Task: inverse folding
């Protein structure tokens, strides 16, 4: 599908946009990268931290490790954690005027389903990259900045204005809501902590998550009339 570079397309239908971006990719790595981001809604930082051991081709899932750092203040007397408003250490009672700050890493993990086409592209990419010297476990061994550049480049090539990782995440969210799917399940898929479901329950509820996720990729012809009415009402 040709598109004039003088009149860039602004956000076509979500699934069609993914097809356009994937078609614009010239190598298996970029095809797999754009498909994975688009079909899962994962963040760019999560994508570049994904390891080959996190892909389960048989189950059709990805296990994502979220790493976050934050400054944490501790009492120099007992090592207790101090909140911003603490005047005295809640652990030992000493005055909190000699606290020390250090970076603390928080690890969180979730397992999400992935579309069959994305799994196929990931498998083709991992086979293709064997010709190169890299032998590490990272699926996409490049920086966050490089990931942004790849998506922006594919967007320009496809004639889609404003293409970037967050636009894919936002469009996936908008499409999910417009099709009247469960927004609590969406929160788990995207990795939001502020949800009534705790992230510790993602694995036991994987089949429920997968069931709702698969509805996103049903063709319009397969959608029941009642589903279409609910989808239209949600718009």
Result:
């Amino acid at each position: 599908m040709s598109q004039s570079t003088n009149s860039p397309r602004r956000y076509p239908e979500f699934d069609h946009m993914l097809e356009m971006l994937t078609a614009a990719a010239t190598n298996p790595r970029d095809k797999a990268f754009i498909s994975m981001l688009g079909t899962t809604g994962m963040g760019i930082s999560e994508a570049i931290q994904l390891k080959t051991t996190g892909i389960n081709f048989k189950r059709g899932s990805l296990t994502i490790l979220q790493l976050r750092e934050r400054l944490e203040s501790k009492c120099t007397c007992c090592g207790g954690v101090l909140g911003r408003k603490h005047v005295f250490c809640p652990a030992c009672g000493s005055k909190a005027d000699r606290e020390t700050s250090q970076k603390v890493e928080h690890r969180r993990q979730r397992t999400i389903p992935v579309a069959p086409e994305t799994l196929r592209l990931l498998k083709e990419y991992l086979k293709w990259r064997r010709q190169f010297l890299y032998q590490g476990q990272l699926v996409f061994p490049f920086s966050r900045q490089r990931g942004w550049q790849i998506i922006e480049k594919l967007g320009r090539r496809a004639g889609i204005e404003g293409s970037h990782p967050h636009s894919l995440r936002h469009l996936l969210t908008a499409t999910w809501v417009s099709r009247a799917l469960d927004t609590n399940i969406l929160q788990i898929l995207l990795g939001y902590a502020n949800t009534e479901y705790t992230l510790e329950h993602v694995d036991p509820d994987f089949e429920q998550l997968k069931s709702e996720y698969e509805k996103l990729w049903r063709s319009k012809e397969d959608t029941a009339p009642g589903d279409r009415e609910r989808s239209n009402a949600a718009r």
